[in-house]
C-alpha cells in the first residue's frame, strides 16, 4: 500500500471518529434530559470509561454543530479543532470555519489564538465606576494573548534558526569535501558566514 492510499484510509477513519463523537454527544444530551441534575455525573462514572468532563465536551460539540452529514467539510477538521470552535460566537462561526478550511488557521495553536481574540472582544460592557479597572483587566488579557503569540513566533524562529544552522554546516562540509576554492566561491562563503554571524 502506498503512502497516499494510507493517508486516504486514515482520513476516512478519522472522519468516522468525528461522526461517532457527535453521535455520542447527541445520545448523552438525550440521556441528561432523562436524569435529575445531580444524577448525570454518577451516571457517566458508572457506565463509561470517559470522564464527566469529556462527556460535557461530547455534548458541547454536538450542541454547536449537530450531526454532520457525510459530505460536510467539517468532518475533516478533527475533534480538537471542532471543540475549540465551540467557543466562537455563532454569528462569527462561518467566517472562522472558512479560515480553517482554507488553512489561514491551520494549527491548533492558531485556532486557540483566534478563540482568545473572541473571548477578549466579548467581555461585558463596562460601567462608569468600574471602567478603569475593567479596562486594565482587558489590557492584561490582551497582553496574555500577545505573550502567547510571541512565544509561538519565537518557537517558530528557533526552529528556523536550527534549520539554517544545519543547512549551513552541511553546505560548508560539501564545500570542503569537493574543495571549492575559486574566488567566486569564497565570496559567497564569506557573505553567508557574515549573515550567520549577524543573526
Overview of this protein structure:
This protein has 199 residues and is mainly α. The protein has a domain at 1-78. It contains 8 helices and no strands. The chain has helices spanning 3-34, 40-47, 52-65, 79-85, 90-101, 108-121, 131-178, 183-198. The longest helix is centred in the last third of the chain and has 48 residues, at 131-178.
What characteristic shape results from the CA principal axes? Answer: elongated
Largest sheet: none
Secondary-structure content class = mainly alpha
Helix content: over 70%
**What is the average of the pLDDT values?**
76
Separate helix tally: 8
The SSE string, one letter per element, is HHHHHHHH
Quaternary class: single chain
Distance between the termini: 45 Å
- Contiguous uncertain segments of 5+ residues: 123-128
What's the gyration radius in Å? 25 Å
Q: How many strand segments?
A: 0
Beta-strand portion reads under 5%
